[in-house]
Amino acid sequence: MNVAGDWYNELGSHMRMTTDPLGGIIGTYVSATGHSAGPYALVGRYETTTRPGYGTVLGWTVAWHNDRSDAESVTSWNGMYLDDGGDERIYATWLLTTVATETNAWECTTVGQDTFTRQVPELDQAALHIRLGTLSEPADHPADTTAMPTR
Q: Domain count of the chain?
């Protein structure tokens, strides 16, 4: 098991993770969608198993705040790393939560899924996912720092 390194989702977002032997994950996330600016810090955990054929569970969080922008939101991913003979993948479900008033708190969280691989996706493949609706935009972070997610 080695989740450390570079990962890309279907839309071309880039994640770089470093792991420690105690289950810690740190790294950076650069989103390919929305109005994000530059890399954002990520932090998470992983848990390995000794059972053959089972994946490694992991989770990480990105607060969409850095020295260039503040989207007032946080995304957390939970999923599983699988390595099928060199075909490495991370399948993850994400929750994006943005700030909201108490009246609008019910609509402040959006749910979606990502598949991460070691390969950078072709630009036309990322556009196809959006066009066919197989992924929802903004996919992994707010598309606008002032707007609430829509349903």
A: 1
* Amino acid, single-letter form, for residue 112: G
Contact 132, 11 (CB under 8 A): no
The answer to whether position 67 is within a domain reads yes
The backbone torsions φ and ψ at residue 7, rounded to the nearest 5 degrees and listed phi first, read -135, 150
Is the pLDDT assigned to residue 93 strictly greater than 70?
yes
Q: Are strands 5-8 and 56-65 parallel, antiparallel or unpaired?
A: unpaired
Q: 53-62, 70-79, 84-93, 138-147: lowest mean pLDDT where?
A: 138-147
Contact present, 108 and 75 (Cβ < 8 Å) = no
E-strand spans in the chain? 5-8, 14-19, 24-30, 40-47, 56-65, 70-84, 87-98, 109-116
Per-residue CA distances from 121 to 20, 56, 93, 142 (Å): 28, 23, 19, 21
Predicted confidence (pLDDT) at residue 144 exceeds the cutoff of 80: no
Q: How far apart are CA 104 and CA 147, in angstroms?
A: 12
In a domain? residue 146: no
pTM for this model (two decimals): 0.81
